Amino acid sequence: MAARPLGSSVCLLALLCAVFPCALANDAGTGTNDALDDLLALVNRAVREAVDPISAELRSQRELLSDILGRLSSQDAQAESASARLDAVQAMFDSQTKSTNARLDSIQEAIESQFQLVTARLDSMQDALESQSLSVNARLDSTQKTLESQLQPVTSQLDSMQAELGSQFTSSNSSLRHLQSELDTALDSVTTGLDSVTTRLDSFTTGLDSITTGLDSVTTQLDSFGTRLEKLAEIQQNATTGPRDCSELPSGSPSGVYTLRLGHGRTNPVEAFCDMETDGGGWTVFQRREDILPREDFYRNWTEYKDGFGDLTGEFWWGLEKLWLLTGTPGRRYELRVDLGDFDGEKRYARYENFRISSEFDGYRITGGKYTGNSGDSMKYHFGQKFSTRDKDQDKYSGKNCAQLRESGWWFGSCHYVNLNGVHLSGENNDSNWRGVVWEAWRGYRYSLKNTEMKIRPQAAKVG
Ligand SMILES: [Ca+2]
What we know:
This protein is of the alpha+beta class. Helices cover 55% and strands 14% of the residues. It is built from six helices and 14 strands. The protein has helices at residues 3-26, 32-241, 302-307, 320-327, 402-406, 440-443; strands at residues 256-261, 269-275, 283-289, 309-310, 316-317, 334-341, 347-357, 366-367, 371-373, 418-419, 427-428, 438-439, 447-448, 451-458. A hairpin with a 5-residue loop joins strand 4 and strand 5. The radius of gyration is 66 Å and the shape is flat. The structure holds calcium ion (CA). Residues 393, 395, 397-398, 400-401 line the site of calcium ion.
C-alpha cells in the first residue's frame, strides 16, 4: 500500500543528487550557503511529500481499525442479549416442562381411577353372566328331559311301524314274483302282435306319402285363404271404426260424400268429399271453388276456417282442424294435389310431397315438399307460413292484413302467389286489390280462375 509514494520520493532524491553536484562545481565561492538552504528546503519538501501520503494512509487505517473495533463491541453486545434470551427461553421451557409433567401425572391418575372403575364393572358383569349361564343350563337340562320323555312314545311307535313294514315287505315280494311270471307271458304275446303291426305300418307309410302330397296343396290353398281373411278383417274393422281418410275406402267406391273417423281415437264421425277418380282416386278433398250460383262466401273469420264451411258437393272449405288431425298423425305422410280450371276449359294440376298442416297452437302452418305438375310451382312461396283470416293477422305484411286486403283466408306471406280462397272475379280483371282466385304461375295475378280443388292422400297409397 505504501510502496508507490515511497518509490516516487526515492526517484526525486536521486534526481536532486544528480543535478546539484554540477551547480556546486560551477559556483563554489559565494552561493554555497544559499545552495544548501535551497537543498534543505528541497529535501524538506521531498520528505514531506513522501511522508504525507504514508501518514494519511496510517490515519485511514486507524479509522478502519477503530470502526472494526466498534463493530466487534456491538456484536459482543448482541451476543450478550442473545445469551440472555436463551436463558429466558430455557427458563420458560423448564417451567412448561414442569407444568406438562404435572398435567401428565394428573391424567395418569384419572386414567388409573377410570381403569379401576371399568375393572370393577367388568367383574360385576362377569358375575351376572355366570349366574345367568347357570339358570340357562338348568333350563336346558329340563328342556332336554321334556324332549326325552316326549321322544319315547314316538320311538316305540316307529319300532312297531318298522316291524309292520317288514311283514308287509315279505308278502309283497311273493306277489311281485307272481306278477313277473304273468308279465313274461304277456310280453311274449305282445311281441307276436308287434310283428304283425310292423307289417301293417309299412303299407300305412306308403299311404301317408300320398296324404302328405295332398296336404301340401291344401296348405297352398289355406295361405291364399288367410290373405283373403286378413283383407276381410280390415274391411270389417273399417266397417266398425270407419275409414280414416278417403284412401281407406274399399276399392271401386265411387266419388262422393263419406263418413270418416279422424284423430287418434277415431271417435268423431266427420263428413268428407272423396275424389275416387283423379289419378287413381283415394283423395280427401278439402277445398273446392266452382262457377255456380249462389256463390259461397269465402271472406270468413278464424273459427269458420278452423271448423269448415260450405256445401261438400259445391263450394266449400273442409276445415283446418281436420287437416291437422289427418296430416299431423305420426308415421303418416300426405301428398297435396291442386286441380285448376280456367274459363277457356283448360286444366292444370300441381302435386307436392310431404304436405302437412300444423296445430292451431302453431297457427295451422303449411308445409310442403317436392313439386310435380304442369301449373308452375307457385305454392312454394307459401310453405312455412301461418294461416291468416280477416280477424287473425299472422302474415308477413307489417301494418296490413292480407286476408282483409284480398277478402280471403290463406297462408299469406306478404301477400301471395296463390290465393284460391279469393273472390270470384271471373277471368281477366283489373281489381285494384288483386282479390281474385289466383295461381300466379299459370294465369297471373290479373286472372281469377273458374274452378279449383285441393285434396290430400297418404303418400304411400298406390295409384291404380
Ligand atoms: Ca300483417
